[in-house]
Amino acid sequence: MQYAILGILIVLVIGFFVVLWKAARTWRWFHIVTALFTMLLAVAFIFPTAGALKSRSEWHKVKETLEVRAEKAYADYKTIKFGDSSDPDSSDGLDELRQKLTAIGIEAGRVWRSLELRSGDLNAITLTGSQDNAVIPPDGGVDGAAAPAAAPAPVVDLVPKGLVVYCFYEKPAPNTNMLVPSFYLGEFLVVDSTPTQVTLKPTAELEEVQKQVISSGQANRWSVYEMLPLDGHEMFIADGSLSSEESLLGRVDATLLDELFQGGVSEETKANYLRDGTQAVASDPPMSRWSKIEFLKKYKLAVDAKSDREATDGGFFDGTGRAVDARLKRNEEAPEVEYKIDEQIVIKEEAANELRETGVAKLIKTYYLRPLNDYRFVLRRIRLRLTQLEIRAQQVAFQKTEIQEAIRATDAMLTEGQKDKLKLEQDLSQTEIERKAIAEYEASMSKQVELTRKQLVELYNENQKLEKELEAIHLQIKNRIDTLTSVSP
């Protein structure tokens, strides 16, 4: 192609000179010079023009490539920001993740990570760090716009003085170098704070294991939380595990549970974590039973209360479960959620039964969802229980001392009883000998008494006989006397 163009150019040049030669008889010299210079300039600018056209062609290819890359980058941007709506198994978009992070941050409060332990004195624990260690919850913005440049922040204390905080010991997560909270150190009061250092004091008596970990310096990295972390389901799900009909949340990571619990919980509690999101059984408590339903009709549910107040004035929800805190309300103009036909949701079993009874929805499956822990109350109940157990231990120790004293006294009594028993046994044997002797003596005396009695009876009979004879003699004598006295003059 380039040779053809070159040939055409040569023909044009020859033709120009032929035309110029033919016109030389009628043109003036300045006409010929002008035409000649025009021809020379045209030939000279052919090469820059060719270079420019070639460069334009290459840049056009670059433009087409960049347009394809731009379209792909924009698609990736939309996927990253909003998620892939065509793939239900894909991860959430940046906006949704930011909303979830905001929801967690609202409840988690401020966090100060990776503070170094300088003093393990239990009455004045000293930690060092900087404001770079502070993590402030996001404000919940989802538009992705960059925040305006703020003025330099004034120098403030590392942790506000007088704040009650909850502390954890940090150590690297399994197979990573990222530090994560792994052991609860207790509740503390910030008694002093500077921009680089904070001093903590326990609000109550710490457990022995907490004292040992702090005093030994084992807990060299601390996380300080303004509020206790929230319990959840997702953090125990194995990476890459997806929801299915058999497991609503995905497969629970048993290895992670073993590393976190390290034998510190009962097998029953561990089994409840492993069953999280699986099919429910009849023995599951009502608070843990959730039903997956499918709507048979369109249904609207009011989720926002008409009243508007702060959560500190009475909670986030009213008595019917509708949101009263402005941060949780869905929309002032549309306070209802509308469900379409064939749409599926997972709700508590009681609510699902009501919808089924009214013919609004049908049951698909019932799942077991582990009731979440409110650590603010759990830790207080545990501490109260530990206090009760300490009191009970003191009572048991006192009772044990009393029982041991009673056992000692009983042993002494048994010893004395054994001595008394030996004496009594000796007395018994002697008494038995004496009893036999008395029995023999009694038998002999009985015989003598019986013999004496017989003799007395015989003597009595004989005395009776003699008495009768005496009476008869006395009567004879009396009669003779009477006879003698009656015949005398």
Parts with pLDDT < 50 across at least 5 consecutive residues = 138-147
Strand order of the largest sheet: 1-2-6-5-4-7
Biggest beta sheet attributes: 6 strands, antiparallel, barrel
Q: Output the radius of gyration.
A: 57 Å
Strand content: 15-25%
The number of helices is 8
Q: What is the strand tally?
A: 12
Oligomer: single chain
SSE string, helices as H and strands as E: HHHEEEEEEHEHHEEEEHEH
Q: Give the end-to-end Cα distance, rounded to a whole number of Å.
A: 226 Å
Query: What integer is the average pLDDT?
Result: 82
**Structural shape:** rod-shaped
Helix content: 40-55%
Helix and strand content put the structural class at alpha+beta
Tell me what you see in this structure:
With 489 residues, this protein is α+β, with helices and mostly antiparallel strands. It is 48% helix and 16% strand. The strands form three sheets. The chain has a six-stranded antiparallel β-barrel. The longest helix has 113 residues, at 375-487. The chain is rod-shaped.
Short description:
By secondary structure, this protein is an alpha+beta fold.
